[in-house]
Amino acid sequence: MPALRHILFSITVFSLLLSSCRSTPTPILPTAQIIEPTSTPTPAKSAFETGAYRNLFAEYLGKSDTEIQTKIDAAWNQLFYGNDSTERVYYPVDSEMAYIEDIGNQDVRSEGMSYGMMIAVQLDKKEEFDRLWKWTKTYMYQKDGPYQGYFAWHCKTDGTKLDSNPASDGEEWFVTALFFASARWGDGQGIFNYQQEAQAILVTMRTKTAEDNGIATDMFDPQQKQVVFVPKGRSATFTDPSYHLPAYYELWARWAAQDNQFWAEAAQTSREFFKRAAHPQTGLMADYTNFDGTPYLDNEHEDFRFDAWRTLSNVAVDHAWFAADPWQVEQSNRVLDFLASQGLDSYPNQFTLDGKALSSDHSTGLVSMAAVAALAANPEKGKPFVQALWDTKIPSGKWRYYDGMLYLLSLLHVSGNFRIYAP
Q1: Is 128 a catalytic residue?
Q2: pTM, to two decimals
Q3: 111 is known as an active-site residue
């Protein structure tokens, strides 16, 4: 995507309901300059207010637009169009569909499909977006039964459903990617009426419990105003901190056709939840927690493991987009300080919440999420992690799916190329 192509919002919010159309003038980009380490936190004005997105590769490392675009293009080309067996995760099916494969597990996940769609809309890749969305609607979408309106969380590569129940993060990312697609490309017909599709998912998220079908529940607990792990039975009684996306809920509060107050409250609830879920010394959060933020004791997911990597990004993106709470700076500083104390080039990818290493592996996915945390951290703490992302190779091999998706999403965030597009 060209470096200067994006949309400036100039929006004054007088209520949580926003029904008027928005103008889309060209935004002013932040000036590229190398920032020497200081104790100064990130700018007070948010990207949502200004339409300007920080480019840490330019600010901290002095990289040119050409160098940055070359790095993003290389990641896109390898992960989407590289070698079939060792590099790519995106696989076209006939002339109209495609899927993102979790290579290590040999399946297709709503998580990966939604990440692929978000990457495509951010990079202005409409063909790939539409292919992924059509595969998702053809094979993952539940047309009937108790989960009608939800998406099966994983399928075989031939489209056969492996489980009917949804994973809540897939729907969250689908909604936001579809809203952005509506803004970038306009709405088409049928499933390509992107905004209509996004609105339908939002309604389903909030109305399943009322159906009383004995199986599916709402995707957000109506009393707690928190996203549930899985909208089914016991799994709907706890949450996954990495599924909390307050920056997305803020947008839904403005763009949803209904429940705007609920989404605004959900955004604030998630911000307060993070404060309870983060360990006060390390900043680490568990894979799964109770709604009060305490670890949910289930099969080792009470620790900081693979899901929880994404909490570093979720806190920082909310800060970058909305500057919602000074605590987000403190939290990002805290967790980056902890990782740095474990060895900047070698910190493990799994820990107990109080900081005991549970592995010896150093993973690209966590390196990527730590670089996004730099959007909220003080420069002297964030800069080394931005450098580490720049120096990291594009993932390949058996486990390239999760590492690769997080790597490419992080390149977009850290370079200022992951932007809000208002329908």
Answers
A1: no
A2: 0.90
A3: yes
